[in-house]
């Protein structure tokens, strides 16, 4: 299994990291809130709400990243190291994105998001 495929697995779990941050930094998540966690998450404000938003964005971008990695592998890109490097850079950009979201650095977060999207596009360009 390539490094890029491991990065897909990491990307799949990043939203759950954000979800845990949202739930447990809200201060009162317990068994009662676990009966309807989505309703609970919608009531959050500030830091926990930003963690929830980072979770949702992570769910949105992961399929495109996974598709890019798979397509690059199927296209038999000559240098597998290229795919691996792009994947590691993407995971790095996602971690920075989450940090920026949690810290409420909106402009930097948007720039990091664009970098991540460019990295996804790169998988398709190296497959040509």
Automatic annotation (TrEMBL):
It comes from the Bacteria. Gene3D superfamilies: Membrane associated eicosanoid/glutathione metabolism-like domain. It is found in: Membrane. Keywords: Membrane, Transmembrane, Transmembrane helix. The keyword Nucleotide-binding does not apply. GO terms for cellular component: membrane. The chain crosses the membrane at residues 65-91, 98-126. It holds the Pfam family MAPEG. The keyword RNA-binding does not apply. Its main location: membrane. SUPFAM superfamilies: MAPEG domain-like (SSF161084). This is Membrane protein. It comes from Pseudomonas chlororaphis.
